[in-house]
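Justification of resources, computational component.

The compute hours requested in this renewal are based largely on the per-chain cost of generating structure records like the one below. Each record pairs the submitted sequence with a full structure-token output. That output is archived, and it is also reused by downstream analysis tasks.
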Amino acid sequence: MTETAPAVRAAGAAAPGGAGGGVERTGGLWADGWAQLRRRPLFWIASALIGVLLVMALFPSLFTSVDPQAADLALSGADPSPDAIFGRDLQGHDIYARAIHGAAPTLTVGLLASLGTVVLGSLAGLAAGYVGGWGDSVISRFAEVFAGLPFILGGIVILTTFNKPGQIVGEVRIITQVVLTIVILSWPLAMRIMRAAALEATQQDYVKAARALGAGPWRIVGRHILPNTLAPVLVFATIQFGVFIGAEATLSFLGIGLRDPVVSWGVMISEAQERVADIPQALFFPAAFLVVAVLAFVMLGDAVRDAFDPRGR
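The structure output for this chain reads:
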């Protein structure tokens, strides 16, 4: 009897449809989430739009050979034509060329702000959720200070402190300042998401078992807590990418974000606001690019959330 039991167990495990194949083997959260994700049309539509935007940002010469800084005042406000399919703005710039080249700074701000927010917020949330007690209280109260700052007011205070209105600032410097401003004002939300996930993970049996076996804090966090808390942060980062693109446009529209000589969709909208009635195309086309980009990342975030949230299935 003792010799045949292993053979029976092996036969049952090897036969998916047999008597011993009642236990279905899965590939874990990430494999299961990807299987769910790739069956969603929303994911592929959003991915296609984002793919086009990324190619546009990385290789603008594939879409236009016109210099976005080239201006001809004699053609100010010209209607769409074969030479400028989106028309020209107040300074005579080709709106199509500027919209194409505006993808890179806009997406750069969204990407760096998302990465910075997720990294800073996740580290703080992991520390708060794992340490608990007074450490959790200190980190949470510190985060609430930043969470209580209105985004627009905070952005105005921070950016005007470093730059006076009308001051000429280098492209790298102003992009860095805008990214840091968004990160400073947005990281508490990522911290709360990670903290909640870490608090839940620390109560699981596998974490308690690791502690009982003598695993150190770094090993517990790196091997057991972090891999099981990344899904909600990934969803947050995907959605916030689109939100931060809109935030950059808002700050640029107010004249405190990106500014000339940087070409971004927010800068184009800011430049067009004074002559909307006379040159509506100068506002419409960059706004359309902005809406499509924000919508694509929000759609992708919704698809990722539905795929990686078991409670939504």
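The radius of gyration is 25 Å. Confidence is low (pLDDT under 50) at residues 1-26.
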